[in-house]
Inverse folding.
C-alpha cells in the first residue's frame, strides 16, 4: 500500500508545513495483523491434528505407562509367594503327643481361607498352635523347633480344665517310665503322658527344654520379721539321672510338711537333658524354685 500525500493550502505570508507521515510504522502494524490472522486461519483448519498431538498423545503415553506398570507388578507378584499365618489359632494343629506342629511343611498343617480373620490379605491362611518367637521353620529340625515356639497358654498349677485344642487330657499315670508326672516346671498344659514321660522324651525333650523355667529368687526381710515365720527354701543341689529324692529330701516339702512361708511353695523339677556324639544320654535335675537370702539389711539389699 502506497502512502497518501496530503496537500494543505496556505495563504501567502502565513505558510505552514504539514507534518511528515512515517510510512514504516503503518507498514509494520499491518504486517503483524496480517500474520496473526494467517496463523489463526491456518490453525483453525488443522483442529483435528491439534487435538491428536496436543491432547491425545500425552494421554496415550500415560495409558501406556500405566499398563506397563500394571504388567510389571503382576509379573513380580507372581514370582513372590506371600504366606500368612495365624498363631495361637482355635483350630487344632497338634501332633500325635498333643504338642504344636511347628514345621510349616508338615502335611498335617491346617489351611483355611481368610474368612473371619481380621487383617488377612491372602486367601490361604496357615494355622499354628503356638506363638512365633522366630521366623518360619523350613525343616523339622529339633534344634530350631523350641526356639521358634512360645506357648499360647500357661497354667500355674496341676489342676486345669481340659479343652481343645490347648488343654487336652494327657491321661497321666505314675509308672516306672513316668515317675514324676506332674512335677515339670513348664507351667503349660501337659502333652500325652506328661512332659516327663520317658516314653515320649524324644518328642518332648526340645520343647521341654524351651518351655521349662529354672526359677530362683533373691529375697530379704525387715529386722522386725521372725526368720522362723519366713522359713527357708534353699538350693538342694543338682541330681543326676533319676535319683531325685522328691518328698524324702528336706528340700522338697509338701503342704503337710512345711517350714515357714517359703516351705509352702509348690516345688517343681527343672531338667537339663543332653545327648553326646556317642548317643549317651545324660539327665540332670534341680528342684525349683529356690530362694537365696540377700546379705545386709533390706534397704541395702534392695
Amino acid at each position: 500500500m502506497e502512502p497518501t500525500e496530503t496537500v494543505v493550502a496556505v495563504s501567502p505570508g502565513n505558510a505552514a508545513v504539514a507534518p511528515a507521515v512515517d510510512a514504516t510504522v503503518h507498514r509494520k502494524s499491518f504486517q503483524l495483523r496480517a500474520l496473526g490472522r494467517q496463523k489463526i486461519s491456518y490453525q483453525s483448519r488443522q483442529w483435528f491434528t491439534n487435538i491428536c498431538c496436543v491432547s491425545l498423545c500425552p494421554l496415550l503415553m500415560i495409558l501406556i505407562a500405566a499398563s506397563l506398570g500394571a504388567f510389571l507388578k503382576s509379573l513380580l507378584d507372581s514370582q513372590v509367594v506371600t504366606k500368612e499365618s495365624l498363631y495361637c489359632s482355635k483350630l487344632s494343629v497338634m501332633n500325635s503327643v498333643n504338642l504344636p506342629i511347628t514345621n510349616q511343611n508338615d502335611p498335617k498343617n491346617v489351611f483355611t481361607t481368610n474368612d473371619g480373620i481380621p487383617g488377612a490379605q491372602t486367601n490361604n491362611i496357615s494355622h499354628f498352635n503356638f506363638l512365633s518367637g522366630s521366623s518360619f521353620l523350613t525343616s523339622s529340625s529339633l534344634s530350631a523347633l523350641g526356639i521358634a515356639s512360645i506357648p499360647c497358654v500357661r497354667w500355674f498349677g496341676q489342676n486345669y480344665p481340659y479343652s481343645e485344642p490347648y488343654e487336652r487330657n494327657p491321661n497321666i499315670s505314675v509308672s516306672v517310665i513316668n515317675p514324676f508326672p506332674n512335677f515339670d516346671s513348664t507351667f503349660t498344659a501337659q502333652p500325652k503322658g506328661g512332659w516327663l514321660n520317658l516314653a515320649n522324651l524324644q518328642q518332648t525333650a526340645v520343647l521341654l527344654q524351651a518351655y521349662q523355667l529354672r526359677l530362683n529368687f533373691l529375697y530379704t526381710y525387715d529386722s522386725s520379721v521372725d526368720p522362723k515365720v519366713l522359713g527357708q527354701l534353699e538350693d538342694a543341689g543338682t541330681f543326676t539321672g533319676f535319683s531325685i529324692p522328691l518328698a524324702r529330701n528336706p528340700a522338697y516339702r509338701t503342704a503337710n510338711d512345711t517350714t515357714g512361708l517359703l516351705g509352702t511353695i509348690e516345688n517343681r523339677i527343672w531338667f537339663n537333658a543332653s545327648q553326646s556324639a556317642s548317643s549317651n544320654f545324660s539327665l540332670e535335675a534341680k528342684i525349683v524354685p529356690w530362694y537365696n537370702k540377700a546379705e545386709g539389711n533390706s534397704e541395702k539389699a534392695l
